[in-house]
Design a protein that fits this description.
By secondary structure, the chain is mainly alpha-helical. The chain is about 55% helix and about 0% strand.
Length: about 90
């Protein structure tokens, strides 16, 4: 492992005490960054599927997975089904 960066810094700056991490400040900053992430924004826009929805049954491999796959019409997302409705499937 190359520790040259640490050794050079120690030579230039001398020994130092590590920065103290304030847990509450760190957690608040992390929460703010996560809330602003694209994943969090998408989660706020979309509702999770209801229990018993075909996608849930399919992903959990429940006893009705065959019917659920047919109900999903080959797509995981309803808008994808709408976009491809009536279009021929490519080979």
């Amino acid at each position: 492992m190359d520790m040259g960066f640490h050794l050079r810094a120690e030579q230039m700056l001398g020994r130092h005490r590590p920065a103290e991490v304030e847990h509450d400040v760190l957690m608040a900053a992390l929460g703010a960054r996560q809330a602003a992430s694209p994943t969090a924004r998408a989660a706020r826009r979309n509702r999770p599927p209801e229990p018993g929805a075909p996608i849930v049954e399919l992903l959990l491999a429940g006893p009705g997975w065959r019917e659920a796959a047919q109900a999903q019409q080959g797509c995981f997302h309803p808008s994808a089904r709408a976009d491809t409705a009536g279009k021929p499937k490519s080979p």
